[in-house]
TrEMBL record:
One of its GO terms (molecular function) is indole-3-glycerol-phosphate synthase activity. Belongs to the TrpC family. It catalyses: 1-(2-carboxyphenylamino)-1-deoxy-D-ribulose 5-phosphate + H(+) = (1S,2R)-1-C-(indol-3-yl)glycerol 3-phosphate + CO2 + H2O. Keywords: Amino-acid biosynthesis, Aromatic amino acid biosynthesis, Decarboxylase, Lyase, Tryptophan biosynthesis. It is an enzyme of class 4 (lyase). The lineage of its organism: Bacteria, Pseudomonadati, Bacteroidota, Flavobacteriia, Flavobacteriales. It comes from Flavobacterium algoritolerans. This is Indole-3-glycerol phosphate synthase. Its EC number is 4.1.1.48.
Amino acid sequence: MNILDKIIVDKKREVVLKKSIIPVSQLEASVFFEKKTISLSDNLRNSTSGIIAEHKRRSPSKAEINYSFTVEEVTKGYENAGACGISVLTDGKYFGGSLDDLLLARATVNIPLLRKEFIVDEYQILEAKAHGADLILLIAAVLTREEIKSLSEFAKNLGLEVLLEVHNQEELEKSIMPTLDMIGVNNRNLKTFEVSLDFSKQLAAQIPDDFVKVSESGISSIEAINELKPFGYKGFLIGENFMKTDNAGKAATEFISKL
């Protein structure tokens, strides 16, 4: 069993437990539930930088990245830096995140927030909406075509945008459907954790122009972004590169100003 399989087993168990404690009616009563969402896809289409900055404390591949910042410091820093949107990891066991991080981010900034999570159930999409997210991530590697269809339709009905993440041609082919807004290519193989920009380059031509193209993981330099832009990428998700510094907001500001 690889790390991704382990995460999904744990996640399904976690969702069952959460459903038994917090009813859907409580999520729907959230102050954010009727809030109009902010479009990340529009922001990326109209941006010169395309940076989606990530709040991430740790990861299975790197263990601890940074626990010294508050969510408010990081997200405000990213907004001031001119990021198009912010990705907030909400998985606790493997990434050190929580839904509280999403809530604090929403209270701090007024730019699109992505709930970065391993979504396997509609309940998690309701949680995302209730905690102030503007969009969700769906990972093709762990979902069937039918699941991608039903989960993305459910998200769209709540007014959330959908970023679908793929790693290869097969995942891309099973996933393309009108209920997606953005297609992200993860440059990290989730089974081996090997990173290569070639994943993004190879799949670029196969992604229809209806979707905003996003490149994720392993982007740590201006050169990498300039290398990917000719392939039609409008969005670039950067996490560790900013989080591993002493000041994530300052690192993001310097990076974006160079772009």
